[in-house]
Structure prediction request, 113 residues.
Amino acid sequence: MKKVTAIIKPFKLDDVKDALLDINVSGMTVTEVRGHGRQKGHTELYRGAEYNVDFVPKTQLTMVVADEMVDDVINAIKDSACSGKIGDGKIFIEPVERVIRIRTGEEDSDAVS
Prediction:
């Protein structure tokens, strides 16, 4: 199993969620995060004063999927989150050793589905 973490633009969340549902990935955790990469923030105007916004709002999705699903998940996220502009995000893949569903005690692939 693999843990897939994607950092995307917030307005792309519904598109990514729908793309993942289309490939039968329904379990995910969504977190509002802030950060920057090449974007390096931007300048905003508030009550006539300019100030720098160093961290840009992003949305983080985290899901655990079977090894054979990883490429499909990556493609679904890439295709649905891409706007072609800077700041579209990143996808991280990590191995998962064990998963346990607390309610039933099911483990690994039984606990993920």
Remarks:
- Strands lie at 2-8, 29-35, 42-46, 49-53, 56-65, 89-95.
